[in-house]
Automatic annotation (TrEMBL):
<keyword id="KW-0547">Nucleotide-binding</keyword>
<dbReference type="InterPro" id="IPR027417">
    <property type="entry name" value="P-loop_NTPase"/>
</dbReference>
<dbReference type="GO" id="GO:0005524">
    <property type="term" value="F:ATP binding"/>
</dbReference>
<dbReference type="InterPro" id="IPR001650">
    <property type="entry name" value="Helicase_C-like"/>
</dbReference>
<protein>
    <recommendedName>
        <fullName>RNA helicase</fullName>
        <ecNumber>3.6.4.13</ecNumber>
    </recommendedName>
</protein>
<dbReference type="Pfam" id="PF00271">
    <property type="entry name" value="Helicase_C"/>
</dbReference>
<dbReference type="GO" id="GO:0016787">
    <property type="term" value="F:hydrolase activity"/>
</dbReference>
<keyword id="KW-0347">Helicase</keyword>
<dbReference type="GO" id="GO:0003724">
    <property type="term" value="F:RNA helicase activity"/>
</dbReference>
<feature type="domain" description="Helicase C-terminal">
    <location>
        <begin position="1"/>
        <end position="124"/>
    </location>
</feature>
<keyword id="KW-0067">ATP-binding</keyword>
<keyword id="KW-0378">Hydrolase</keyword>
Amino acid sequence: MVFVETKKKADFIATFLCQEKISTTSIHGDREQREREQALGDFRCGKCPVLVATSVAARGLDIENVQHVINFDLPSTIDEYVHRIGRTGRCGNTGRAISFFDLESDNHLAQPLVKVLTDAQQDV
């Protein structure tokens, strides 16, 4: 599962990955309900092993067995970061979260991010 901040970027990354022969779908607020359900179904059954999503679109979704969460864009708040990475490693399963950090746009998250990771006994 790949998180981005904008609908446009969700579509761009999903299209790019598909062009690279990686089956990918995306979900965001501009999708109709039918399209969202199709994308989620394709992700859950493994037809599309990559789901690119905005935080808003992914809120409230319970998707089992998410093994990887990638924050292509870090969210604006540390609470949203915790919510996103909570998508992996549920119910005793293990998972991995990878985040790309941009010094210019993400600097405000540096200290809170170090605290969250340290509190969770993760390498920083």
